[in-house]
Amino acid sequence: MTVRAAKGAAPEPKSLGHHALLDQPVVLVLNRNWQAINVRTPAEAFCQMSAGNATGLDIAPDEAMRPVRWSEWLDLPVREWDAWVGTTRGHVRVPTVLVLARFDRVPRRRPKLSARSIRERDGNRCQYTGRSLAPGEGSIDHVLPRSRGGGTSWENCVWSAKNVNGRKGDRLPHEAGLTLLTVPKPPPELPVTFSLRNPHNIRDWELFLPKKG
């Protein structure tokens, strides 16, 4: 099987590499209610389609769309913007979006602990002063400093102004004359749809991912 891609905007195969395309996460997976729940490679998508577990979405430039079964998908024309793979029967279009046939749930997931997720949980406000922080003004503060045995956890990390964080140093908040506005805790689990990203800027994905604020 030869992996090739036609010129176009969605996806951008040149940035992925022709021979690596089958193993790139460029297929958005929807449950049977058409809610985004995962990302798969073309190789995985073709396996699910050929087994009858999923259909590919044929999406037109005007955003009209229809689910297509594997037997018909093999004969879909490859448009100038489509990625495709070469087979003994000719070029086969790579789907950008896959719809599962039977799975209807939306799994939930807690965000991964990181500076970004701490900032988002705390609303980009210093948890000691309540001030809304501009980009670059905030950092993670360990309520119980690491030098005193504090771990990196949802319960021990807050978003703080850098100058306040520096003033607190290796002290507990009350030792530095500070008071936490809220008790830090893990954020609620959210539908995985909200954690999906579109790193390759595939146009068709934007029809199913939450709009950016």
Structure description:
With 213 residues, the chain is of the alpha+beta class. It has two domains: 2-108 and 191-207, no CATH class; 115-176, DNA Binding (I), subunit A, CATH 1.10.30. Helix content is 15%, strand content 23%. The protein contains five helices and twelve strands. It has helices at 13-16, 42-50, 70-73, 115-121, 162-168, and strands at residues 2-5, 27-30, 36-40, 54-59, 65-68, 83-87, 90-93, 97-100, 108-109, 138-142, 157-161, 190-191. The strands form four sheets. The protein has a five-stranded mixed sheet with strand order 3-2-8-4-5. Strand 2 and strand 3 form a beta hairpin. It is elongated. Residues 1-18 have low confidence and may be disordered.
